[in-house]
Design a protein that fits this description.
Helix content of chain A: 55-70%
Domain HTH merR-type (chains A, B): 1-68
Keywords (chains A, B): DNA-binding, Transcription, Transcription regulation
Region (Disordered) (chains A, B): 110-129
Order of helices and strands of chain A: HHEEHHH
Strand order of the largest sheet of chain A: 1-2
Biased composition (Basic and acidic residues) (chains A, B): 110-122
CATH architecture of chain A: Orthogonal Bundle
Protein name (chains A, B): MerR family transcriptional regulator
Structural class of chain A: mainly alpha
Oligomer: homodimer
Number of domains of chain A: 1
Shape of chain A: elongated
Largest sheet of chain A: 2 strands, antiparallel
CATH topology of chain A: Multidrug-efflux Transporter Regulator, Chain: A, Domain 2
Number of strands of chain A: 2
Chain lengths: 129, 129
DNA sequence: CCTGGCGTTGACATCGGCGTCAAGGTCTAG
DNA sequence: CTAGACCTTGACGCCGATGTCAACGCCAGG
């Protein structure tokens, strides 16, 4: 299968696939004419990469999953390295959510404060509240 | 006050301050020698910008707060425009948290699935569990 | 006068994941 | 033979908020 077909099947662009290759994630046998020739394993690798990227993984983080597939496993997350990335990611998410919660609380507080402010500095504006 | 002093007081770099100016956020009177000359209001504006950026606001989003301060208000969030940005930001945070939660759940699911996987494909590894 | 520490503008570098254009090679159908 | 639909590599553009360097001006102290 050539790159255009792979791109369509995976739901991405040929540019993206070539980029993954440049990063050493997607191997490529070459046909006699120099065209890239992908097989079913490559298809699964590409799909794994895409789904992880879509979820919010960095390209680098997909590497263990790719290696795992290439090692002959049925799933990209069948290896401890990959599972470790899952765990790291969950921690990152927890941290992120925590920070967002903190910011959210802060903003809610500011909203309250701003409201009081307005009531104090412009009491005449409280016509219909 | 000159730019170095302002940068130190605000806790940022002179480069950043010049950048804010290039974006039309931080005005600058000039001394006779061409040096930027900042006053107390500028200090407050710069601090407002920094604290918002630190929280996760984009520079563009600080504009209403700056305008509000420049308009003579005691606080940058004393104006409806600024408050509107607060609200938008809170919504963004909620959306973000929601997506993160979804991804987190998905990852937890994958972890479970991966665990079963291992138990199925390598039952002999369950020596001391 | 000279050094060193401030200031000035301008412009290129960074990070990630591509988009997009350029200039060409390859293959197939008509 | 030729159009056109694919492929190739290479390289620059983008986004945001700076870092960093260059090359220069200004000014106070020894």
């Amino acid at each position: 299968m050539r790159i255009g077909e792979l791109a369509e099947k995976v739901g991405t662009s040929t540019r993206a696939l070539r980029y993954y290759e440049s990063q050493g994630l997607l191997g490529a046998r070459r046909a006699a004419n120099g065209y890239r020739d992908y097989d079913e394993l490559d298809l699964r690798v590409a799909r794994e990469i895409r789904s992880l990227l879509d979820i919010g993984f960095a390209l680098e983080e997909t590497r263990p999953f790719v290696a795992c597939l290439r090692a002959g496993n049925a799933a990209g997350d069948a290896c401890p390295d990959a599972v470790a990335v899952y765990r790291r990611k969950i921690e990152e998410i927890d941290d992120c959510v925590e920070r967002l919660h903190a910011v959210r609380s802060h903003l809610e507080g500011q909203l309250e404060r701003a409201k009081e402010h307005k009531e104090k500095t412009c009491p005449r504006l409280r016509r219909n509240t």
